Amino acid sequence: MCRPAAMRPDPSGRPAARRTSGWTLDGPVVVGTDGTPDVHRAVRWAAVEADSRERPLTVVHATRTESGHPHLSLKGFRQAKDHAVDVLVEAEALVRKAALGVEVVTVSCPQETATCLLREAGQEGAVVVGTRGHGGFLGLLVGSDALRVAARARVPAVVVPPRERDRPAGVVMVAARDDRDREAVRPAVDLALRRGASLCVVSVWIFLENVGSMATMFDDPSELGVTEGAEAARLVTRLREDRPGLDVTHDVVRAASSAAVLVAATADAVVIGARRRSLPVGAPMGHVSHAVLHHAHCPAVPTPLAGQEPPEQV
């Protein structure tokens, strides 16, 4: 079972919380804000992330005025500009109130949110976005802005829900079944090390999905499950060898839905390999990623898998 951190001494002598994995960052941590309380959690999460990485924090407010508003007067444009200033000042005050010494840069951007955030992040930054701000629906927790960012990002992206646990769970969860998910494991290792948490590798085995028509009445499901979990077990063994200072647990779960297991997670973050669409029609992300972004109770980190290039526009 997943358990809170029990960090073991690292033979390298390096402090685990500052070590990096394959998810290094030379650019800023970029967060979007519209001034709503739900999005304030994303700002605070991004500030802690920037502080732990010793990177600057860029806070962005998108006014969307560049796209053209035929019924917006000159006065309306000025009001939008003034509102952006107020929102950004408030966001910077939130960071200062947390007593974090991180460098803060504020940006008012006239384009739509995803374009603004991804441009500021560039090729070496990270993006943090809240799941719902102005225009969100209570029953649909992830807004269109958050979904566009998650689907288009070529850099690390974190989607923060409006409500999180009051206290850290001490666990970072990652969904992985074999080496094809190693791109998702890297940011999970990085998050766990820097936040002093344990890493829980969850391998969800769906019997009918993984066995299908090859199963017969004479097959033993438990034996098939052992085979399915063997690849993930080898992945976990390598993780423990590479990161001796990190507490790594492994859960093989038999369930009807991968998304249901991940959504119910009690964790500080859940990292998933994001399978993105290759055609300009249909859902921008796979159904598991989409469900986790909609319903997870902790920050979700959709990570592009090898060969999964995000679309230019969503």
UniProtKB/TrEMBL annotation:
Pfam families, per the entry: Usp
Annotated region described as Disordered, given as residue ranges: 1-27
SUPFAM superfamilies: Adenine nucleotide alpha hydrolases-like
Domain of life of the native organism: Bacteria
Database matches in InterPro entries: Rossmann-like_a/b/a_fold (IPR014729), Universal_stress_UspA (IPR006015), UspA (IPR006016)
Domain UspA: 28-161, 172-300
Gene3D superfamilies in alphabetical order: HUPs
Family to which the UniProt record says this protein belongs: Belongs to the universal stress protein A family.
Name this protein carries in UniProt: Universal stress protein
